[in-house]
Structure formats: structure tokens, C-alpha cells
Amino acid sequence: MLNHRGVSTRKIAAAVGIAQGRLYDYMNGKSRVERLAIFEQIADAFHIPGHLLGLARRHWEPRDHAPRATSSVSLAPLIDSVEEDDVAAVDAFRHADRATGGGRLYSAVVTHLREHVAPRLVDLSGGQAFAAAAALTEMAGWMAHDSGRDRVAQAHFARALPLARASGDTALTANIAASSSHLALQAGDSAAAVHWAQTGLDAASEGPRVPTLIARLHAMQARALAAAGQHSAAERALDQARLTLRDAPVKVAHPWVSPFDAAALASESAEALRDMGRLREAVEYARQAVDLREAGRARSLALSRIALAGLHVQCGDLDAALLVGEELLTATAPTLGSVRVMQQLQSLGAQFEPNRSHPPVREFLMRLTAERRARMLLLADILTPQGGHPV
User: In the chain, what are the domain boundaries?
Assistant: First the structure.
């Protein structure tokens, strides 16, 4: 496209800051462009509007006349326009992750990104490849998190965000911000979690409305505010999440956005209420999360049962805690490839430990220890440092 405008390869190479020989390699398919900055430099050097190269609006484009990729269109055409192969890949990885955990899927997602998505980022036909790359990079981040590698997960989320912005898909951008908020909470950084939740809400307001995504963002905002000790604001955010999800049309969905349903909201509500010290209410929501969760969501069910058992312990209801603990150990397959579940099992054991003198608790702890040892053997390949870098 650029050569048809009469722009020499020498001028293009000089504008981008690469050797002319390297540019020929890119044009002939011998090398792949792996840096978004190259496209940005081309756009800025020759004043090509960002949307023509799958980028966000450039700083020099007039704001009043800048094309909006999603703000003036309905959600249905946006979904219809995505390529089926990319959506099918995201769905396949998403379903497998729910059932088996992300530990052993991480390498498969990274390989798919490198071999099937990254090469298409040099095709200047639109934002589809950037959206697929952003969605899969975010998914790789979640799988890294599930493998206990939060620094790698953070790097994936950081890389996914500019890809989402380049695609022009504001809902995808907001979804990645929600994931970043979750990861910040796991790291104990409530201020960053609040920031990311608000960033996501701001992005979600700029495009087609995806109610389930907005509900998720309000729920993450509530959790972050509760962790920061801002209980009144957290309660308001929880109320907003419930109202938004309650009024959400059943059929409105988005191919790149993580599903968020009543079970997920109940789980997030339980976490927020626990941090606000409202343990009895937290127990009720944690029980809802277990009851509402689909049987195929093995990891979510395991994490919800762990949370419920821990809340019962905090309330002093040992019999109820042991009952949930037995359900947990019986129902959770030992082959579930989730380091995060194993870590939470260890934390649950620590919560029970002060009551070890109680015979049923002592027996449960012995069984829990045996289960954890078996899981460590089965997850040895995941627990071993792999030293991988994000795509």
C-alpha cells in the first residue's frame, strides 16, 4: 500500500529507523514484525490515520473527525465481523482451561500466538489480528497466573493492553483492565486494583455496552475498595454490579470478553464482604457461588469450595467447614493442573491448623496433606521453573 503511493523503501526504512535490507525482509516475508512501535512510526511518519493500520487514533489526528472503531456501531456487527477461526481458538482454550486448569495449556496458547497470530500482525488489513493477539495474550497471562507465575502474568497483561487498543475494541481493552485489577489484588496492591477497575470502566463506556463486562468491572472495583478499607464505596460498587448483571440481556456477549455470570458475581461478593468483616454475609454468597457454578468448571468450583470452607472456619463453624472440605477433596480431580488451587489448599490447611486438637480436624488435615503431596507430584512439571518469557 505504501509503495503504491510513491514512497520509496529507503524513505520508509529511514522513518521507521531500520536498515533498508531489514525492510525488504519484512516485505518478502523472511522476517516478522514483532513490535507495534514499527506500525506506529510508519503512521506518524507518513500521516496515515491510525485506523488504516489497525492502530488507535494518532495524536496528530483531529479529534472531531477521528474514526471511532466501536463507539458508533452496535455489538452484533462487531461480533459478526470477527474471523471464526480466532474465536474458535479462544473458545477451545477457554473451555479446556476451565476444566483442567491453565498450567499445561500455557505453552499451547503461547505456541498458537507465535505460529498462527503473530505473523498476521504485519497484514495491514485491520484490527482483527490485533484483537486475537490481545485476547490470547491475556489468556496466556491467566494461565501463567494459574501456574503460580504472577510476574509473567503481569507481563502478558501489559503486552495485551496496547494490542487491544490497536484493535480499536474498547470492550477487549476494558476486559484486560479487569484482569489487571484482579492480578493487582492478588499481589496485595489495592490502589493499583482500584486504578485498573476504573480504567476498565472508562474504556467500557466508550464503546458498545457489554453489561456482563461492566458488572465484572464494578465487582472488581468493589473488591479493590474493600481491600483498601473504603467499605461504603465498596458496597455501592457491589450494588451497581448486581443491578447491571440483573438487567443484562441474556444473549448479549462478546467473542473476546471473559464470561461473567451470577456464580462469578457471588464469588467476588464473598471476597469483598470478607474483607469488609461481614463474614456471615460472605458465607451466604460463597455458598451461592458453589451452588450456581456449573459442574464442568472444575477450577472455579474448587476455589469456591476453598473460600467457603475458609469462611466457615473464620466464623467458628468447624463442622460446616469440614463438610465443605470433604466435598472439596472428594470432588476435585487430583489431575487438575492448577498451582493456584494447590496454593489455596495450603492456605486452607493453615486456617484449620489452630484447631488440630479437635480429632475430626486432625483427620481432615492429614488427608489434606496427603492430597497436596499427590498434587505436587502430578504438577511437578508445572512447579519446576520454566523461565519462559511472554510472547
Answer: 3-65, 294-391
Overall pTM surpassing 0.70 (yes/no): yes
Are 163 and 136 in contact, with CB atoms under 8 Å apart? no
Report d(CA 391, CA 137) in Å as an integer.
7
Could you give the angle at which helices 20-27 and 9-16 cross, rounded to 10 degrees? Answer: 110
Show Cβ contacts of residue 120 under 8 Å, excluding neighbours closer than 6 positions. 129, 132
Q: How far apart are CA 81 and CA 282, in angstroms?
A: 41
The string of pLDDT tens digits covering residues 313-333 is 999 999 999 999 999 988 877
Class of domain 3-65: mainly alpha
**What is the CB neighbour count within 10 angstroms for residue 154?**
19
Query: Cα 202 from chain centroid?
Result: 17
- pLDDT digit string (tens) for 109-126? 888 888 778 777 766 555
Joined grid coordinates for residue 162: 496496547
Residue at 243: amino acid letter? L
Long-range contact list for 235-239, CB < 8 A, 24+ apart? 235/276, 238/269, 238/272
Residue of 326, 341, 327 whose CA lies nearest to 372: 341
The Cα–Cα gap between 202 and 260 comes to: 18
Residue type, 172: L
Query: Is 175 a residue whose pLDDT tops 90?
Result: yes
